[in-house]
Amino acid sequence: MYAILDIETTGLSPSAEKITEIAIFIHDGKKVVDRFSTLLNPEKKIPYRIIQMTGINNQMVEHAPKFYEVAKRIVELTDNKIVVGHNVRFDYGFIRNEFKSLGFDFQRKTIDTVKLSRKLIPGKPSYSLGKLCQSLGIEDHSRHRAEGDALATVKLFEMLLSIDRDQLETDKKGKLNGYNKSLVEGLPKAAGVYYFYNKSGELIYVGKSINIHDRVLSHLNNNLHKKAVRMKNEMAEVDFQLTGNELVALLLESAEIKKHQPLYNRAQRRTYFNYGLYPFTDENGYTNLKVIRILDELNPVYTYGSSHEGKEHLTRLTEEFGLCQKLCGLYDTKGSCFQFQIHQCEGACIGKEEPESYNRKVGDALENYHFGKQNFFVVEQGRSEDEKAIVKVENGKYIGFGFVGLNGQTDELNGFHECIRPQKDNREVRQIINSFLRKNNNKNLIPF
Questions:
Q1: pTM, entire model
Q2: pLDDT for residue 348
Q3: Surface-to-core class of residue 15, CB atoms within 10 Å of its CB (0-12 exposed, 13-18 middle, 19+ buried)
């Protein structure tokens, strides 16, 4: 027996947001035998962007039951059943968190129709519920409402059953057995972010790769370190998001690790950036800059994939802000630096420029120099041949990324702006973008 469900929420984080609507269809493997659907009072305001997407507003849920009032019904409906959902970790995570707040440990086996669809219906450009159902001729008259999406998932699930019921049984067994090599089945040899879950459905690790299948396989074959073996033994499920390219994979991985802080990512030493830019004050009071290998005990101002990349960036900083090559470790001399000789350095290297004046310029360089241009898109390959991935930087800050189809639209830049999914700006993502641009000589950069 299966409990096929969908929820609507006030946001994306189970720990911070609440459920506004839930729908459950009980399925015996042949047909729906019971159903339950209700709006829920989330006991908090619904953000405007969520209202726009779902159509569920604060007035609609004001007199709806609270979660604890329907909790017993949900337990009874799902008891001894497998919970089925499209991207089921989202729904299951929210429901578990709601029960956790009531002091109840809600645990059910799960099946994800996203993962199952990738196995049984490969090659689709998108596996989002709306686009997948559209491509399969499945109607969803109430998109982004729990009952409509749950019913669409029912129809999709029945279609998957008709394609290969044995595969469904294999998936069920695989979940019960914990770690096994079937974890890599259906994983694409393409760029993206992958997620490891334990048997309780908790996210324990997030990684990125240009070849998800092979990277996950390398985790399963890693017996060199105790931490790697512990993580491997805890893995019960693998999920992923395609990005189409390494840049978006890096940006998404960074955001997901900061958002979820998975057990095996905490205090993780990043291997992508091996060199860092460090400031220090010399005996004369001047702030010096130096690119060296990452030091565990110190936080670098910028990070780089190689020493060469770091020195190239530092060279640009000296030119942009009139810094001294000698004090930046770029010109080894006992006298004045080369920049002073061509009147581009004011003489900090020989004590001619006062430390206070010079240090202000260093401060400006480290604080304000994020990108060479203030407003631009980076255009990379998307998740399919007819799609592009777009990264947006505006006013020197990272805005987010998105995907846009190659549909021959006349106003290309407008399409780029509209596709962006907002993300948080921070030093790490700026370093990721800067490093990418430096390595690729600003290729595929479009100013606006």
A1: 0.52
A2: 94
A3: exposed
Predicted pLDDT of residue 24: 97
Q: What is the mean pLDDT of residues 406-415?
A: 69
The pLDDT tens digits of the residues spanning 120-165 come to 888 888 888 988 998 899 987 777 899 999 999 999 999 999 887 6
- Domain tally, the chain: 4
Flag whether 314 is in a domain.
Answer: yes
Both tokens of 177, joined, read 């057995």
What tokens does 231 get?
A: 């993580």
Distance between CA atoms of residues 444 and 438, nearest Å = 12
Q: 130 with 253, same domain? A: no
| β strands within 59-191, DSSP E | 82-85, 110-112
Residue 180 is which amino acid?
Answer: N
Statement to judge: residues 211 and 171 lie in one domain = no
* Alpha carbon distances (Å) from 421 to 60, 147, 193, 248, 398: 27, 26, 16, 12, 11
Asked if residue 223 and residue 205 are part of one domain, the reply reads: yes
- Does residue 343 share a domain with residue 227? no
End-to-end CA distance of the chain: give it in Å, rounded.
Answer: 54
High-pLDDT (> 70) share of the chain, %: 91
* CA–CA gap between residue 27 and residue 417 (Å, rounded): 42
User: What b/e sequence results for 233-257 when a residue is b if at least 16 CB atoms lie within 10 Å of its CB, and e otherwise?
Assistant: ebbbbbbbbbbbbbbbbbbbbbbbb
**CATH number of the domain residue 54 falls in:** 3.30.420.10
Q: Which two tokens stand for residue 104?
A: 């109840």
Q: Residue 376: CB partners within 8 Å, gap ≥ 6?
A: 393, 445, 446, 447, 448
pLDDT value for 280: 93
Residue 286 pLDDT class (50, 70, 90 cuts): very high
Per-residue pLDDT at 357 = 95
pLDDT of 178 > 60? The answer is no
What is the per-residue pLDDT for 46?
94
- Sign, CA dihedral 391-145-73-16, equals positive
For residue 21, what are the contacts with CB-CB under 8 A and spacing of at least 6? 7, 8, 37, 38, 39, 40, 54, 56, 145, 146, 147
Q: What is the CA radius of gyration of the chain?
A: 26
